[in-house]
Amino acid sequence: MEELWYSPHMAAASRAISERIPLVDLIVELRDARIPLSSELEILRNYPTSSRHIVVLNKMDLADRSKSQEWMKYLRERNFISYGVNSHNKENIKKFLSFIQTQVRGLKRTDHSSDTATVMLVGIPNVGKSAVANSLHKIGRISAAEKGKLKHAIVSPEPGETRDIRSFKIASHPNIYVLDTPGILPPRIPDVDVCSKLILTGAINDCLIEIKELAQYFLAIFNCSEQYKNWENLSTKDNDKLFLDCTTECLTSSKMHMKQRRQSPTDHTQDCIVRDVRRTLFETISAFDGNTRDEEEMAELISRQFSALQEAFQVSNECQEEANVKVAKKLLNLFRTGRLGHYTLDLLPSNIH
């Protein structure tokens, strides 16, 4: 049975992209740097690796830097041209645009003499194609000193927002146009672990799994990582000092946002609350003397963490079920925005066993 994410629109987009692949000069496959293997675009597996196919790991700012380098090395060893990018970093995008121009010029020397090239961005939903297209277009227009209103692609944290294939000029001499395409997934994803990673990173909508269960999945990953050790300096027995520091920090944060909308006292994105969440995670796992490899003991640790995080997020306990949902949503938001560390969830194939 085809899953809920595979709509008629996605099926049509898959066909349209497949038809255009042989016609474009360069295929830039964007993958999520946190899941370099799980975010592979299935329809490209039928095409041999070539200089026309570049694998770009986007969201490098959210992934483990050393592991991302290992993944790019792994891809290069398998004859892929690979590149790492952060679509929100202007200097990074400038270098990426220069890299694309170099690749296009190389193709033009060995291919045909047309002075126009087309680059197609492809990938799964919410991997950042529209953000990359917008950034390349903006940098390209500024570099060429071209006038006129910029045409932006729609950028959204929700998967499936891009509905059509859109063209944006990103460079001149030669003229290079980038095609921003809708995110697509295969009709079926038989691997439960891969599916969980896609939901956790936002490629598949959260509605397909209970939000608390998804947060528990993240905590299981977190508890097996070394990330918590980076927050040792946040642990303190001097609760009064912690409270005063937090209050001061919240007040400072409030002043910085006076021209913006008024923040709620329980806004989980405030630095002081993020710090409390980090401290809570550090202390709960540090105090745990069980075995995280044991499923039951891991579940017990996660249960303790949910209770402690409820206080850190300042969530009311009037209804425990609603409280758990609120904690889960806030926790996942902090993970997805990089506030709880940098993670690469996919193991290199050589390390899987």
Automatic annotation (TrEMBL):
<dbReference type="GO" id="GO:0005739">
    <property type="term" value="C:mitochondrion"/>
</dbReference>
<dbReference type="GO" id="GO:0005525">
    <property type="term" value="F:GTP binding"/>
</dbReference>
<feature type="domain" description="CP-type G">
    <location>
        <begin position="10"/>
        <end position="187"/>
    </location>
</feature>
<keyword id="KW-0342">GTP-binding</keyword>
<protein>
    <submittedName>
        <fullName>DAR GTPase 2, mitochondrial</fullName>
    </submittedName>
</protein>
<dbReference type="Pfam" id="PF01926">
    <property type="entry name" value="MMR_HSR1"/>
</dbReference>
<dbReference type="GO" id="GO:0003924">
    <property type="term" value="F:GTPase activity"/>
</dbReference>
<keyword id="KW-0547">Nucleotide-binding</keyword>
<dbReference type="InterPro" id="IPR030378">
    <property type="entry name" value="G_CP_dom"/>
</dbReference>
<dbReference type="InterPro" id="IPR027417">
    <property type="entry name" value="P-loop_NTPase"/>
</dbReference>
<keyword id="KW-0809">Transit peptide</keyword>
<dbReference type="GO" id="GO:0032543">
    <property type="term" value="P:mitochondrial translation"/>
</dbReference>
<dbReference type="InterPro" id="IPR006073">
    <property type="entry name" value="GTP-bd"/>
</dbReference>
<keyword id="KW-0496">Mitochondrion</keyword>
<keyword id="KW-0378">Hydrolase</keyword>
